[in-house]
Amino acid sequence: MRLAYLPDQLDENQIGLSLNWSELEVDGNHDAEQQGLRRVEQVSVGVYLDWRRQAWRFLSSVAPVINRMKRQADNQTDSFVSGYFQAEYELRHDWTVFGRLEQTNNTGSSDYLELFPHTVTDRQMLGLRFDLARQHALSLEVSRAETPADGDFEQYLLQWSAVFP
Fold first, then answer.
1. Bridging pattern class, strands 151-162 and 136-147
2. Nearest-CA neighbor of 95 among 50, 143, 55, 51?
3. Which of 23, 102, 136, 139 falls 20 to 30 Å from 93 in CA-CA distance?
4. Residue 98 near residue 129 (C-beta atoms within 8 A)
């Protein structure tokens, strides 16, 4: 569920609250099945921001996540907090430069996140987007990321995005 406050109905600016509850069944994950994990009940409550001011746009979200791990022998609860902040600056109507910071805390004490060792837990990114047409964009992104399994590494991405009617 997502609740949003829009100060002006005709504008993009919004502040909001997101609520999520999921029941995830373990099926086919070898590592999880070896640990006796049957299912995970996951709850997250987060806040987000999407705000534009002249040539600037700011996007942000912070969400604590609580996992109740249902095992054959016992139940266990763990949690982590995940969030990001992104700033964009429109150089011209078709060129935008952006930067993004992502972070997940308490990763070392989360049995849930241990099931996904290649999950990015920390990232710093810079990018440049060129809007080719009304619903097409080309982006170049450079980032430094970290995962529990891979440690620190760099990524260079060239991406085409499109919306088709």
1. antiparallel
2. 55
3. 102
4. yes
Intra-chain end-to-end CA distance of the chain, in Å: 26
Return the SS3 of 32. Answer: helix
Place of tokens 């995940």: 82
Cα–Cα distances in angstroms (integers) from residue 87 to residues 29, 96, 100, 127, in the given order: 37, 10, 7, 10
Among 52, 45, 46, which Cα is nearest to 84's? 46
- Rounded to whole angstroms, the Cα distance separating 52 from 44 reads 26
pTM: 0.86
d(CA 125, CA 103): 12
- DSSP code at position 34: H
Model confidence over 112-135: pLDDT tens digits?
A: 888 888 999 999 999 999 998 889
| Torsional sign, CA 135, 52, 86, 83 | negative
SS3 29: coil
Domain ranges of the chain: 2-162
Tokens representing 7 are: 């100060």
